[in-house]
Structure formats: C-alpha cells, structure tokens
Amino acid sequence: MKAVVHEGQAGINGLSYREMEEPKVGETEVKVKLKAAGLNRRDIMVLTRHKEDQPPLIVGSDGAGIIEEVGSGVSNFNVGDEVIINPSLGWKEKSAVPPKGFEIVGLPDHGTFAEKIVLPVDNVEKKPAHLSWEEASVLSLAAITAYRVLFTRGNVTADDTVMIPGIGSGVATFLLLFAKKVGARVIVTSRSKEKQKKALELGADLAIDTYSDWNKELKDEKVSLLIESIGRATFNKSINIIERGGTIVTFGATTEDEVNIDMRHFFYGQYNLLGSTMGSREEMHEMLAFIEKHEIKPIVDKTFLPEDFEEAFHYLKESQNFGKVTFSFTS
C-alpha cells in the first residue's frame, strides 16, 4: 500500500510517499480503507519527535474510510461500514487527565496517511451521515480538542463572552462554531484581514487584529472565557483582557512555550488557568452527538493528493489555512 512515511531526516525533508507493508488485523481490530486523511499541526511536530534512527513511520492522526476487514472478536462493526478514526488511544471515560498509557494515533505507532490502517475497534466511530469524506476526515482530533476545551474544561454557557486569539486553525474554527451554537458571544483575533472576514461570516461577533491593543479594540469589554493556543506572543494580553474571576483554557503554543506572568496581578484577579489536550472516547461520543444535532460541518480549506505531501505540509506549517487541510485517497 502507498503511504506518507517519515524516516532518516528530521522535518519535512524526511517525508516520502512510498510503498509500505499492509498491516494485518488482530482479534479486536479493524482494517479501514481510507477515503481521506486530515492534517494537523501535531503532524508537523511528529516530524521532529520521530528520530532519524527510528524505523519508518506512517504519519497522521485523522481519517475516514470504509471497514475492509474485522477481527474475529469484533461484533459491533461490519465490513462496509463507513467510519471515522478516533485518534485518542486508551482514553475511554471522561476524566480530569488522560490515563497512564494514553497515546495518539500517528506516533509511536503508524498513522492515517496511508491507503489502509489497522486500529483497535474502540478507535473507530460511525461516520456522521451529513458529512462528506473530506469533512469527516478532518473532524476527530480538532473537534474533540475543541469540545473538551469548551465544555469539559471551560464549562461554556450562553452567558459567556468567549475570545479565540489566532482564528484560522482547525481547532479554532471548531471553537467558534461550537460556542455560537450554545449562544455565547465570540470575539476572535487574526493578523489576517481575510481570516477576520471569514470568521465574521462564520458567525463571530467581533474580529480584531492580533497585534492591536485588545482593551482599546474591545472598548474595555471584558472576556469571561478565553481559549489560548498561541503562547508567549499573546499570553499576557490574554490575562489582561479577561474579567476578574475569568478563565483561560490553553491547549497549545504556536509561538514560544515559556511565558512570564505577573503573579500578583494573577492572584488578585482570581483568574483560572486550565490546560487541556485531546479528549476521551466518552467526549468523542458527546461531540459527535452535538455536531449531528446542530448539523455542524468542519471548514475544509484545501484538499491535497498524498503525493503532494510536501506542498501540504508547508501550507499548514505557514498557517495559510482557514480551517482544515486533508489528503484525498479517493482518486
């Protein structure tokens, strides 16, 4: 089978599109013939975390396709079922933190950027009927991350004013769509006028420049729930825009990881700072029910052929996307 494989060199230069051995199915596993496979920023990080002296690795965490084979112990799925991949390995019930042994599809084991993948049966879910293959392929990782951030960690309600610095990523667009469905006011930021415009078209109540004076732009309006994923470049601006007793939930850092905080300002403000990553199978089921109830569709920015992997990775790395990017295996 053909796959996008990383080996030998760190970064994008270590990628190739080549033949790999087709995986065999275990007793409680299923083999999925992939129709499409979504890219995430995690895939870029994997190209550094997967070392040059390690065996070849098929990259990718997201995907959707048709079950081609089931193990002898599988009774809840059949050959021909249309499914999406749940990339959270070993995290079943909703909990404060992932359990010991939690991993994500695509490292350390093979991922989804291939014609076929074998996974535990617990890591596939029925494909939402209202989604195309491309839409379904980009859903899981970003949507479950956004769902846990907003609902499990942020406890979002219709009374909240939610701020999302750096609109444009897959998770950020899901955050916007989800928050608007519960009736919250949503403010977004971007350096790009085009991304600000697209966010407003998706339902954002206000879009401002990331580099602007946020307090001035908001005319001293305060934010009750802010979702931070940029890091050092915006973190202190985020603290200074939330209301006293407000909450910041962080799930990533596209700029530097380390930040300096004025602790006196922080504790006098009674602020809450929460971390989040991915989500459980239970939260996956909640998220799928939510998007089906509200008929939410992922924003698919661009579709690439897998042999065009280099262009796709650079496109994502340079943050050219508004929404999600995917590989199509249907041609």
Automatic annotation (TrEMBL):
SUPFAM superfamilies: GroES-like, NAD(P)-binding Rossmann-fold domains
InterPro entries documented for this protein: ADH-like_C, ADH-like_N, ER, GroES-like_sf, NAD(P)-bd_dom_sf, Zinc_ADH-like
Domain of life per record: Bacteria
Start and end residues of each Enoyl reductase (ER) domain: 10-327
Protein name per the record: Zinc-binding dehydrogenase
Organism whose genome encodes this protein: Bacillus seohaeanensis
Lineage summary: Bacteria, Bacillati, Bacillota, Bacilli, Bacillales
